[in-house]
Structure formats: structure tokens, C-alpha cells
Amino acid sequence: MKKTLIVASLIAAVGAMAQGTIIPANFSAASDLGPAVNVPFTEKDTGAKLWNAYQAQLMVGLTEGSLAPVGAPVKFSGTKSPGTGYFIGSKIVVDPIAPGTEVKARVDVFPVGFASYDDAVAAGEKVGKSNVLTLTLGGVGAPPTLPTNLYGLQAVEVAVIPEPSVLALVGLGAAALLLRRRK
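Predicted structure:
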């Protein structure tokens, strides 16, 4: 009786500590948890495929409003000429979300040398965000299922996001021109 209780307790403890897994990549083969992904990312103004001067940060949460960075940012492969447009990271364990849980995920892209997307925006750098995906984390069962890939990911184009103050000045200038034209 004691042995059965101990074994059952160990199984429950291991199950409670299990965490879902995901692969941060915009190029991957099909798996049990989704079709293949082949979505190179580019610069909006030049059309050039991204290279190792850019990095991708995977954001995961239970809701779109709770997205937070998981794992370290992953650098894009290749050099500027020619860039590949691809980032391919290693499996990430999403702590503390359980395997098989449906999550929201997004990829934020920003230059290497910045700690976050927001830091790059504040510096006036080219940045981009992917569409928000609904995915089911891998790692279910024994042996665990493969990590989920980013199926449903759409292409991202990085560009400079103007400061709100710049947009306000453009709006004021346009309004002034319209008012002057009326006189």
C-alpha cells in the first residue's frame, strides 16, 4: 500500500512540474502539432531578407494581453548580403504553462544590441511584430510530444515606427496648410 501511494505521488509530482514546449523558428518541418512553417522576414523599405543584425523574441501567454518574453532572443541567420530571412532557435520550455495548453504567441523582431522591442522603438530602429498565433504547447504524454512550431505565422516586415510626437506634428502641419488654403 505504501509503495503504491509513493509511486502515485511521484507520478503526480512529475506531472505537476511538466511544462509545455515550443520551437521559436520561422522555418520548420511539419510535426504532430502543426504543418510546416516557411515564412522569411524582410525589411519593408528595401525588401531585403533579414540577417544576423536582427533578432526575434518569442512572446507567449495564456491571453493576448498577457504575452511575455520566453527564452532568449534568437538571431537571424546569414549576413546582410544575402540575408536568409530566417531565425531558428532551440526548444524553449514555457514555464509554468503545462503541456497541451492552448496559448497565444507572437514574434517581436528588433536589431541585435537592444534588450527588447520597446528599447529599439525608443531608439528609432526598424522593428516588427508578427500576427498573434493560437498554439497548443508540446510536451504532452510519455514519451512527450514534439515541441509545437509556429504554424500560422505570417511574414513580418520591419520598419521604423514614428514617434507619436512626430505624427502629431505632421497632423498639425497638415491642419495649418488646410486652414491657410481656406483664407
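Summary: The mean pLDDT is 86.
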